[in-house]
Amino acid sequence: MSSMRRTPVFFLACLMTAGFVSAAPAVADPLDDLACSLGPVGGAACAEWLMRHPGAGLDELLPVSLLSADGSVLYQGSGDHFGGCTLAAVDTSAGLLAWSTGLGGVDDCVWLLDLTESPDGATVYATGLVDGAHNDQAVIFAVDADDGSLIWSGTHGTANGFSIAIGAAVSTDGARLYLAGATATAPDDDAVDGLVVALDATDGTLLWDAVYAHPAGSFDLFLDIAVSADGTTVYAGGSATDVHDTTSGDNEMAYAAAAYDALTGTELWNTTGGATDADFGRRLAVTPDGDSVLVGGNKGVSAFSSADGSSLWDTIVPGASDWDDLALFVDLALSPDATTAYLATTRETAYYDAVLAAFDTSSGLLEWTASEGTPNEDTLATGVAVSPDGTSVYLASTGLRGGSTYVPFLGWVGLPGGSEATVTVHDVATGVSSRTVSYTDPLAEYTVATDVHADGSAFYMAGVVTVESDQGDFIAAKFTA
Prior knowledge:
The protein is mainly β. 2% of the residues lie in helices and 54% in strands.
């Protein structure tokens, strides 16, 4: 996930959403010192840099971010519910805005929901949703990483239906772009099916698509996607209606996963898992050895055999919230040696607390949990990352003060509206927190940490600040690891 704001910079933001590319430096921030408001006093706790830059406008509180594979660029993107999506690139060496562009070629882009890059780092792909007159369609943008210029854009959907692209991944050779999402035959259709799409990465030509419909229910969607290390198999993960209670009329949700032949789109297997009746899957990870597929959600993690989809283990986080809206903010990361999976989710006590949980990937053993929160205030976990050397795990979180935004298929979703965007650093062996860094704007309606990224020497906070519901800035900060 990721970040934004506009006040006197409204005109610049309008130029961006109109399709102009900007190479301007970052907007000066008068509150840089607040990046060190928590944690040890001294340089180690302070940001190397902190910057804010204009975003897309209304409904920018579900932004996305991506740290390039070489760690040189932090990409941040978001949509506007009234039409218009923005993608920006931050130079991580100096904290300067390299470029920012309003994504063109397709009208009425309202959501950016994932970012990924080509193996050579030359192209950035952004996926999401366009709001059509008679149907909503998945949208895809391919952008030149050097200057933000549009290479190609396209949509995917039916004439009168509904489609959305939520997750994206590129094949190991860079030739194909795979999307995960959902589709329906009509905009108001209650029957929603999971969707996987393969495109030619050079021009967006459709290669194949596949629809997943669990036989037990009518609400199935994929929210994440990954490609096997050998490039032969595509895995999609999300949620499915596993059981429909005819007495109450309620659907019991399960984690869902499916595997497809990467070349043809032929389904190899599909499965569901989870240990409760309210399992909403959000993130998917494949172990480097190719043996296991993990789906992380609001309640915990389920592991499946990559060979046939059979269940390996289901482990829940004690006290994890049943609230399906919170599944949108769940994140999952593997340790460098893939022996441990780290889940960022939310625990429900008297208030909501952000929780970080560590799982043994071979057995499913819950090794430890660590909670972060402020007394008498809700705190939501929004991101997780692991240092490349495997010694630290980072948890992004923020406070909740209400507010909502509309998310396709899920309706009106409560949003984080905290006074501080926070990243905590945890020991991988024990979960003990050793350091906390945060950012806040006392004049803002929302200050939200939406994600955290790590490379060898630093970690990065990505987020958003809004002064009013339709005025926002991306925020980004770099901290020495």
